[in-house]
Amino acid sequence: MEILFVGLIGLFFAAAVYLMLSKFTIRILLGIVLLGNGVNLLLFTAGRITREVPPIIPADASTLGSVAANPLPQALILTAIVISFSFFAFLLVLTWRAFEELGTDSTDEMRLAEPRDEPLPPTGY
Amino acid sequence: MASPSTPVDLAAAMVTTAPALADWLVILPTALMILSGAALMMIRKSVRLHAVIAIAALALLVLIDALLLWQVSSNGPVTMTMGGWLPPFGISFTADMFGAVMALVSALAALSAAVYSLRDIDTSGLRHGFFAFLLLLMAGVSGAFLTGDIFNLYVWFEVLLISSFGLLILGSEPKQIEGALKYAILNLIGTTLFLITVGYLYAIFGTLNMADIARKAGALRGVTENAPPLMTLSALFVLAFCMKAAAFPVNFWLPASYHTPRITVSALFGGLLTKVGIYALIRVTIMLLPVEREAISLVIAASAVLTMILGALGALAQNDLRRMVGYVVIVGIGNMLAGVAIGSSTSVSGAILYALHSIVTMTALYLVIGEAGRLAGTFELSRLGGLWRRAPWFSAASLALMLAAAGLPPLSGLWPKVMLLKASLDIGAWWLAAAILVSAFLVTLTLARTFLLAYWRPAPGGESEAVAATDWHSTLPIGLLAALTVFFGIYPEPLLAISQAAADGLADPSAYIRSVFPEGAAP
Amino acid sequence: MNTLILRTVAPVITALMLLFSVFVLLRGHNEPGGGFIGGLIAASALAIFGIAHGPGAVQRAIRFHPMAIAGAGLALAAVSGLVSIAAGVPFMSGLWIYPDILGTEVPLSTVISFDIGVYLVVVGSVTAIALALETEPDGGAGEGEGGG
Fold first, then answer.
1. Residues of C in contact with B23 (CB under 8 A)
2. Structure ipTM
3. Which residues of chain B make contact with C100, given a CB cutoff of 8 A?
4. What residues in chain B have per-residue pLDDT under 50?
5. CA–CA separation, B514 vs B96, rounded Å?
C-alpha cells in the first residue's frame, strides 16, 4: 500500500514541478495546488497507513484501544490544507489583479519592477 | 453531558502542576501580537487609534522580550507546553538564548520601523490594515523564534508570510503587485519544501518536538541496517531555508520584490524575514543535524561564497538605492551562511552576531534610504545629491549605518566579520575568508559611492523644491538604530557573550532538552 | 449567473446554510465538524448571496467588514488561550464551566470559544477573498486581505 502511495506522491510532485516550470502564472498556480496536495498525501503516508479504527476513545473507556490510526498526521494535514487553501485563494486574487493591472500572465513580460533598460549608476563624481 | 469524573490518571499524559509565572514569558510575545493585531482588525475604521495601539504593543513586546532574555540568561531555557499535555504530545514553546535574543532585537527593529511608518504610511495604507499586518507579522516572527516544535515553526513561517503579502501590496500599484506575485509564489514553494521535509522528518523520527528530535538523532545515527535517510533530510532543510533566507541559487525573488513596497515595509522585510530563514537554518543544521551538516558543509560554503560575491556585484551595479540595499541584505546572508558552513563554535556565534547586527543595520539602512529618497524626491543615484548640506545630522547617522553595514570599525559590523574570518582561517578555508573580505570591500565601495554621490556632492539640478525637513518620526528610529550599532561597535562584550552563549547552547543542547523534558536527556 | 431563480432562492439557501454552519460548528465538539468547516459553509453561503445580489448586498447584510469579523475571531481565540493564566494551567488548556441555564446543565469551555473564534476567522477571511473576487474590476476595495 505504501509503495502505491509513494508512486502517487511522485506523480503529483512531477506534475507540479512540470507545471511550475511554465512561465504563465496560472499554470504555476495550478502546479502549487498540485504540490500542496502531494504534500498532504506525503504527510498522510509519513504517519504510516493502517487499516485500523479511528483514534476515538469509546464512551465507556478512558484510553484508546491497542490498535488505532495515528491521529497526528490528520491534524498536520488539516493544518496544511487550511494554509494551502488560504494561500491559494490569496494567490488567485493576486494573479487576477496582476493580469488586470499588467495585462499579461506571462512572467517574462512582467518587467515593471525590474525594467530591462535600467540605467547604470554614475561612474564619476 | 454531566460533569466528568475522571478515573484516569492524568499525570501520564498531562501537566498536573501549575506552570511558573515566568514560563508565560515564552508565550506572551506571540499572544500579545496576535491579540493586538486582532484588535486593530476590529477597529479598522478608527485609523487614528491604530498607530497608538500598535506602538504601545510593540513597546510592550520589547519589554517582554527583554524580560525573557534576562530570564533565559539567568535561569536557562524556558519552556511552556500548550494545552497542559506533556511534551512531546503538546506543542512546546521553548526559548533558549538564541531564540530570545533574536526575538528581542527583531522587536526593537519592528518598533523603530513602526515609529518611522507614522509618516511613511498614508491613511489609505492604514485603512488597508498596515499596523494590523505589522503586528501579525511580528506574531509570526516571534513565534518562529520561540517555538520548540518544528511543525509549529512551519505554521509561524506561514503566518509571517501571509502578513507579509498584505504588507507588500499596500497601495496596490502595478509594480507592487508584480513584485508581490514573484515573492509570493517563490516563498510559497520554499515553505512547501519545508513542509515536505517536515513530513519526511516525522516519518523518520516519529516526533516533531525539536528537543525530542535532538535527543533521538544520536541513536538513529547509530542504526546501520536500513539507515534512516538523515542526509536527505538535512539537504532538503538547507534548500528550503536557503530559499527563505535568499541564498545564492534561490535568491532572485528578493531583488525582484523588496524595492516595490513602502519603505517601512522594505525595512521590516530586509531586517527580519531573511533572518528568520537564517535562524531556522542554524537551529536545524547546528542543533538538530550537526553531523549531516558537516557532510554538506562544502555545498553550503560554495553557496555562501557565491551569495556574497554576486550580491556585492549586484549592489555595485544598481542605480536605484532601494534595489541596492536589497543586494546588501543578500551579502549579509552570504556571511551568515559562511558561519553555518564552518560550523565551529566561533563561526556559529559569529553568524548569530552577524544576524543580530544585520537585523538592526538593514532595517536602519532601508529607513535611511527612504528618508534620503523623500528629501531628494528620487531614489536614483544619478539624480540624488546635496543631502549633507540639507540635513547634516541625518547624514552623519547615515554614514555611520553605511559603514556599519560594510563592516568597518568602529561599528557593530566589524566584530562578526572578524569572528567569521578567524573561524574560516582556523580550518584553513582561505578562499572563504577571501570571499568575506572581497565582498566587504565591494560593499564598502558601493556604500561609499552612495554617500559621496547622494550626500556629499551638490545636488545635480540645483537645490530642489523644499521638502519638509527630517522630524522625529525619522530621526528617532534612525538615531536609535544608529546609536545601537555605534554602541555595540565600541563596546561589543555583552553581545559577544550573548552570541557565544547562544552558540554554546546550540552545540550542546542538553540544557534545551532538559528544559522540555525535565526527567533527563535520554529518551 | 444573475437569474431570477437564483435571486429568489439565494436568500433562503443562504439562511439555511448559515444555520447549518452553526450546527456543524457546535457539533464539532464531540463529533466530526468544527469551526473551520462550519466557517467555510458560512462563507460559501455568503458567497452565494454575493453572486445573486452583488458584494454590496453581502456587505450590508453582515454589517461589519469581513476583516473585522476575522479580527474578532482571532481575538476570541487568543483570549480563550490566555484565560489559562488566571486558572494556573498552561496556555490553551481546556477549561470548563457548567452553568445551570433554565434548569439544564450546559457545559461551556474555552475549547468551544476557541472554535467559535476559528469559525469567525474563517468566515471573515474567506468572505473577504470571495467578495474581492466577486467585485467588478474597478471596485477593488478590500482585495488581497488573506488570513490563515
1. 90
2. 0.93
3. none
4. 1-3, 521
5. 11
